[in-house]
Amino acid sequence: MTQVLELDPAHPQQDVIQRAASTIREGGLVAFPTETVYGLGADAMSDTAVQKIFEAKGRPSDNPCIVHIANRRMLDKVSTGINQKTELLIKEFWPGPLTVVLLRNSAVTASVSAGLSTIAVRMPNNKIALELISAAGLPIAAPSANASGKPSPTTAAHVLEDLNGRVDLILDGGETKIGIESTVVDMTTDPPVILRPGWITQESMKSVIGDVENLASEDSLRRSPGTRHRHYSPRARVILIGPEQDQMLKQVCVEHLNNGAVGFIGHSRLSIKNDNFYPIYLDANAEQYAHSIYRALREVDAKNPEVIVVEGISDDGVGVGVMDRLRRAAS
Fold first, then answer.
1. Contact of 63 with 40, CB cutoff 8 Å
2. What CATH number belongs to 237-330?
3. What percentage of residues in the chain have a pLDDT greater than 70?
4. Ramachandran assignment for 179, one of left (phi > 0), alpha (psi -120 to 50 degrees), beta (any other)
5. pTM
6. Quick one: 12 exposed, middle or buried, by C-beta within 10 A (0-12, 13-18, 19+)?
7. Are the C-beta atoms of 175 and 152 separated by less than 8 Å?
């Protein structure tokens, strides 16, 4: 059984941090909170440790992991070719939900990058995560701490549900603040290219470094997690319907209720009275969707519906990251 250890997010207990850091240094797996989702951490410099991540998650070997660091010095330890635009972005957005793709330092095990010459790196904005990395004294490879393909975990309970018995420790720091994964931007090209949208928007990066593109090629998408394989999906089939289509939402839900239970996640109040209808209503804004969508998918999926109907939102701003996750969940 995996042990769950609770921590105060504002003042993490140092004995717990040191225990988790020792587990990382000894080649073990530790799940921990970040500001985005929970990550499944291992020593990024050890091929044996990183392979344990792939085994525990059932993760395809060609899906790279993001390496988490605690300070600027660690960036030089894991990457090379750090240009001025990268320096400007990390000065503006680190610690925070922005991952930069750089050239990988050969000292880092190639398996963390799925054998590629590049590496995805970020500095999380979470006290537990930063203190764990600092105490371990090494960069930590950490994809989301869920079974591969399922909705990412935003609580320690989600991690335990997916990975109990497969990891050594889970650090419970409460629910994550943002709720969707970081933005990933490829800094090995000029202009830089967004590989995965997220909380940090194209517009906000443009205001710092100028032109940033979002039309990534299929080849470049290999450098980022969460772009090519099945992701973010519950057991039930997800049907995504665009915004401002209230009548279609109700029609689809009613039609599928003829075949069994139906889950619904959205902001439109549907007048459906049926014991097999399980709605979760969210506020109609991107930040609320981002914070709640993975938890909502898991909660509705636990009712064993035939389908989950999800009401989409605008692609503006943070909404582009939310809709990216929902389209992949429904694909």
1. no
2. 3.40.50.11030
3. 95
4. left
5. 0.94
6. buried
7. no
Q: Determine the Cα–Cα distance for residues 258 and 8; give it in Å rounded to an integer.
A: 47
Asked if 61 and 54 count as a contact pair (C-beta separation under 8 A), the reply is: yes
From CA 218, how far away is CA 227, in angstroms rounded?
9
- Where are the CATH 3.90.870.10 domain residues in the chain? 3-221
Model pLDDT for residues 31-75, shown as the tens digit of each residue: 999 999 999 999 999 999 999 999 999 988 888 999 999 999 999
Write out 154-199 in H/E/C secondary structure: CCHHHHHHHHCCCCCEEEECCCCCCCCCCEEEECCCCCCEEEECCC
- Surface-to-core class of residue 296, CB atoms within 10 Å of its CB (0-12 exposed, 13-18 middle, 19+ buried): buried
- At position 150, the amino acid (one-letter code) is K
Classify domain 3-221 at the CATH class level. Answer: alpha beta
What's the whole-number mean pLDDT along residues 166-181?
Answer: 98
Task: Provide the pLDDT for residue 176.
Answer: 98
In terms of DSSP bridges, do strands 79-80 and 169-172 run parallel, antiparallel, or are they unpaired?
unpaired
Say whether 86 sits in a helix, a strand or coil.
Answer: helix
Q: CA nearest 115: which of 68, 192, 51, 191?
A: 51
pLDDT at position 215: 72
Q: Could you tell me where in the chain the CATH 3.40.50.11030 domains are found?
A: 237-330
Nearest alpha-carbon partner for 21 in 5, 1, 41: 41
In order of 9, 257, 299, 301, the CA distances from 254 in angstroms are 43, 5, 20, 18
